[in-house]
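Module 6 notes. Inverse folding takes a fixed backbone as the condition and produces residue identities as the prediction. Think of it as a translation problem where the source language is geometry and the target language is the twenty amino acids. Below is one complete input and output pair. Work through it position by position during the lab.
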């Protein structure tokens, strides 16, 4: 729902605690306070942002590395509206140009379009699959099919097989789709694919994504408490009391939990755990990712006539260039680890640290011999206040609940939206929370 202009409309004023200082929490604070509510935000960590984490230490002015969310798609209307409202500037991201490279079965194939892939690859694909990029091949099946109902008991992989996916097409999809298609529901797979398709051209923010959160927070700094790690929430007929791990307490009429799904496990509720949380938890798993960024000599790939987008069937599945530079002539090469390979990447980090990870990248990417000494990594699953990237429904999961509210408690955050785990979903949930408290 759109709440454009409603922040200043007459409302039923109330006091509200907001737990969680990510994009959903800071936007909810902004909407509620502009709507006349007495809202206060509690953030458990040392920083605001949640899944938005922008690193700048040791980088030239204007450069940054996104260790969490990073893309601002054109097809996300709330996100685009907020970018305009805050006066921010977007950049094309990732900036791609041919030729691409595909590492597959011991060979590296360079191509400018899918039609230039070797015949041994194209010949193993069905006709409808051949014009798709390897990392977008699932769109051959999701784009022109009827919606998959929420009650469908199949997995995404079973649904694809029923659509007639080729064996190689299945291999591409299982490798490049960000969630495990054999462990997520057919409805969840189809919906995620269509959300990606609808999101359009991908961009990022010039100067770092954390500007979204900090500019919202700057409007209400005196109403934000950092380091308030809420551990207990008591609900009664008159209001809500939140207590943090240091024993401090806050009292209000209502509470908005602008938190990731998994982080709710850290909170003890009194007199009982709200049923609305259980309804959102049943049949949902949380995706895992490790983000890795390393600097490299920008001219090297240009001399080799290779794009920074290098695809493979082992880590790194896909690489791409960041718009930021680390020093003159050196840029950041980004990648992500997910699915079953994530454990081996974590083990490499545990045993060899960033040196071990750099050695692994050099072995897997012989096209990039200038990988530098700097490596940035982020494992959102390792942060108990976040617990992972975003939830997805497992096969047989019940439909998404139609409510985020139970009495004086409201769930917010991208995990409780129609765009799970995304910034668009975070903004949608903030609007829903503000609207719920303004009726």
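Target side of the pair, the amino acids:
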């Amino acid at each position: 729902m759109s709440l454009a202009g409603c922040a200043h409309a007459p409302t039923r004023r109330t006091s509200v605690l907001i737990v969680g200082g990510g994009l959903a929490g800071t936007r909810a604070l902004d909407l509620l306070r502009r709507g006349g509510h007495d809202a206060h935000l509690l953030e458990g960590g040392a920083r605001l942002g949640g899944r938005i984490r922008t690193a700048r230490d040791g980088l030239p002015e204007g450069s940054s590395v996104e260790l969490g969310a990073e893309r601002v798609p054109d097809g996300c209307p709330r996100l685009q509206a907020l970018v305009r409202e805050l006066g921010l500037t977007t950049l094309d991201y990732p900036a791609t140009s041919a030729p691409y490279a595909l590492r597959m079965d011991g060979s590296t194939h360079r191509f400018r379009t899918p039609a230039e892939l070797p015949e041994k690859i194209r010949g193993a694909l069905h006709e409808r699959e051949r014009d798709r990029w390897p990392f977008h091949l699932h769109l051959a099946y999701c784009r022109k099919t009827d919606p998959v109902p929420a009650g469908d008991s199949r997995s995404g992989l079973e649904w694809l097989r029923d659509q007639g996916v080729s064996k190689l097409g299945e291999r591409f999809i299982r490798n490049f789709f960000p969630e495990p298609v054999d462990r997520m529901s057919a409805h969840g797979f189809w919906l995620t694919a269509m959300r990606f398709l609808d999101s359009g051209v991908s961009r990022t923010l010039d100067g770092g994504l954390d500007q979204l959160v900090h500019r919202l927070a700057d409007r209400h700094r005196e109403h934000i408490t950092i380091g308030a790690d809420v551990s207990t929430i008591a609900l009664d007929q008159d209001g809500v009391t939140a207590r943090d791990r240091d024993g401090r307490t806050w009292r209000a009429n209502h509470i908005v939990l602008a938190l990731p799904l998994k982080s709710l496990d850290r909170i003890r509720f009194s007199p009982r755990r709200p049923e609305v949380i259980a309804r959102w938890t049943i049949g949902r798993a949380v995706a895992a990712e490790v983000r890795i960024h390393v600097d490299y000599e920008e001219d090297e790939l240009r001399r080799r006539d290779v794009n920074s987008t290098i695809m493979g069937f082992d880590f790194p599945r896909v690489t791409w260039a960041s718009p930021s530079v680390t020093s003159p002539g050196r840029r950041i090469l980004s990648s992500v680890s997910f699915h079953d390979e994530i454990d081996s990447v974590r083990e490499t980090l545990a045993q060899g640290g960033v040196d071990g990870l750099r050695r692994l990248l050099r072995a897997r990417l012989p096209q990039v011999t200038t990988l530098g000494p700097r490596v940035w990594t982020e494992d959102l699953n390792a942060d108990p206040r976040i617990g992972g990237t975003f939830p997805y429904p497992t096969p047989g999961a019940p439909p998404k609940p139609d409510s985020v509210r139970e009495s004086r408690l409201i769930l917010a955050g991208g995990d409780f939206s129609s765009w799970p785990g995304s910034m668009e979903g975070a903004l949608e949930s903030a609007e829903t929370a503000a609207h719920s408290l303004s009726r």
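Reference fact for the lab report: Residues 1-10 have pLDDT under 50 and may be disordered.
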